[in-house]
Amino acid sequence: MSATELIHDLSQHGLVLRGVLSATAADTWPALSDQGPSCLWLVGTVGPAMWAPFSASPEHRDGQPDALDRWSARIATHWAHRLQGHALFPFGGPPHWPFQRWADRAEALSPSPLGLRLHPEHGLWHAYRFALVLPQRIPAPVPAPAPSAAVGACAMCPSRCVKACPVGAHDHGFDLQRCVGHLRTPAGRTCLEQGCQARAACPEGAGSVYGTAQVAFHMRAFAAHHAGVSD
Ligand code: B12
Ligand code: SF4
Ligand code: SF4
Q: Whole-model pTM?
């Protein structure tokens, strides 16, 4: 198996290798028995590339819950088994694997007031689907250096994202109950159908914005997952 083969297969699913981390003494990902030191291959999405392959998948079509998580698990466990590694996921906690901290080590990201990391090219329009813990002996590609023009863009921005939320859910950290409460009202249909207005207000990564069907899918999943949050 070459890294090229894995990266090619990921691209068929609209996924990309976001970075390869070498284990340090502080890392808590599971060790690989008898295979020496490990690396963590961080896999995710940038822009809307994943939407077409995912929406044609059996998981999206079967109408069962957690379609995106089940799709991610199928792809990740295939490769973990084939490469004798482990698959780790951003979902399924708590506890949660620290995907955003791993992401900070892999690319030139910066924190945003929304809790999401801002990518220098894709803005807020990117995410993580899984990580593979693999032996260091598997040759890893050298990632291209990330462009840095938008790093720190939040410091020079009048918080357009925060101001765009109709109920001020991001005014003092993130008020999950305020957000979910709004999504349950008739006025919340705009967010449910067209996506989070705070995320959409960010001018960074304009070429990577998800399409309407994808943002509606993520918002439906978010609202369904938090249906039990009391007002
Ligand atoms: C818990 C969680 C949330 C919680 C936030 C909890 C909080 N502190 O307020 C909730 C449910 C609100 C949430 C929401 C969303 N999240 Co979230 N979330 C996570 C999750 C599963 C764990 C984070 C964690 O605890 N890490 C462990 C600790 C040790 O690491 P940490 O770096 O200190 O983590 C902190 C931040 O991640 C932060 N945080 C995470 N998400 C959010 C969202 C908001 C709005 C805020 C303020 C903070 C915040 O809270 C963590 C604890 O302090 C991660 C996946 C992962 N495993 O990392 C995704 C993740 C951070 N979320 C992500 C996304 C995309 C979202 C949504 C946009 C998804 C959607 N359906 O639209 C929404 C935002 C909704 C909105 N209306 O704004 C992405 C972010 C990608 C990126 N660009 O950085 C991640 C990495 C998942 C992924 N698959 O890629 N999320
Ligand atoms: S709108 Fe401004 S503050 Fe918000 S994430 Fe984008 S650049 Fe950062
Ligand atoms: S989904 Fe709507 S209510 Fe929730 S944070 Fe985004 S803009 Fe605010």
A: 0.93
